[in-house]
Write a structure and sequence with these properties.
The protein has 11 helices and no strands. The protein is an all-alpha fold and about 210 residues long. It folds into 2 domains: about 25-130, Hypothetical protein, domain 2 (Endonuclease III, domain 1, Orthogonal Bundle), CATH 1.10.340.30; about 135-200, Endonuclease Iii, domain 2 (Orthogonal Bundle). Helix 1 (about 5-15) crosses helix 11, helix 2 (about 30-40) runs antiparallel to helix 6 (about 80-100) and helix 2 packs antiparallel against helix 8. The radius of gyration is 18 Å and the shape is elongated. It holds the Pfam family EndIII_4Fe-2S. Belongs to the Nth/MutY family.
């Protein structure tokens, strides 16, 4: 690992600790899967508001699998892109029931074979449910990894590969958790708080 990368990780550990935190509320693996699907283009805070009622109404996989499409669309409407999300949730939960015996699968291949589940969602499940080291590339990770010079790529899959080479395995999940906090509070997409930033000297975009 490069000395520079080591320093960045040490600072992140110091600022945010090494605790594994999941910002989505869930009790079962399939609830985390659905919550992560809903979080596409939506804040975790809003998803948690929606799922508080949603997981009470649909408290089993069967209820999701047999849900009325129009009704489910209304139930998840505040998360945006609700037509697509509702369709995918019904197809995904049916797959879980009929192909995987009601269990959320562990492998990247099985997870990404589910409707509406891409690599990012699959890696959230692998990291949080199975504790398999995985790199989750969301908007914060993409933006900040580029700013820190840990990748030059735009494509999430290429960024994932770069970070797997650049970061030690014990930081794969942790890095995502720390960077989400950092990206929400300091290194925001628009008007980042550069003067408050503790990683200023490592940033490729910071101008004195």
């Amino acid at each position: 690992m490069k000395k520079r990368t080591k320093e960045i990780l040490a600072i992140l550990d110091e600022q945010y600790g090494r605790e594994y935190v999941c910002y989505l509320n869930y009790e079962t693996p399939w609830q985390l899967l659905i919550a992560t699907m809903l979080s596409a283009q939506c804040t975790d805070a809003r998803v948690n508001i929606v799922t508080a009622d949603l997981f009470q109404k649909y408290d089993t996989l069967e209820k999701f699998a047999n849900a009325d499409l129009k009704e489910l669309e209304q139930d998840i409407k505040p998360t945006g892109f609700y037509h697509n999300k509702a369709k995918n949730i019904i197809a995904c939960t049916r797959d879980l029931l009929y192909r995987f015996g009601g269990e959320v699968p562990r492998s990247l291949e099985d997870l990404t074979s589910l409707a509406g589940v891409g690599r990012k969602t699959a890696n959230v499940i692998r990291g949080n449910i199975y504790h398999d080291p995985s790199v989750v590339v969301d908007t914060h990770v993409k933006r900040i990894s580029r700013r820190l010079g840990l990748t030059k790529n735009e494509d999430p899959e290429k960024i994932e590969t770069d970070l797997m080479k650049e970061l030690p395995k014990d930081h794969w999940i942790l890095y995502n958790i720390q960077i989400i906090t950092f990206g929400r509070s300091i290194c925001t997409a628009r008007s980042p708080k550069c003067e408050q930033c503790f990683l200023q000297k490592y940033c490729k975009e910071f101008k004195m």
